[in-house]
Fold this sequence. Notes:
The chain has helices spanning 2-21, 43-63, 76-80, and strands at residues 27-30, 67-70. By secondary structure, the protein is mainly α.
Amino acid sequence: MLDLLWMFQARIEDLTRYLLDQGVGPLFGDSGAEYAGPPVMSPHFFRALYVEPEARTAAILHERGRCCTCTAMARCARCCRISSPWV
């Protein structure tokens, strides 16, 4: 399952770079993690299956001066120990 996740994550990263090269932005959004968030899924799996891939995409956007939003029913800061003034 993780191999499939990272295969699609690579596609998302390629698409993100393509969109950035085309001048898309400044704000990107992502939603859908509510199906994987605690308490449905343990914090460990939530970090592995959502936070880690999302952080890679966010890093690409931030390197190019863009912003992103992430939507999850669970507060990411509480279940993933993310330090952010916006969470």
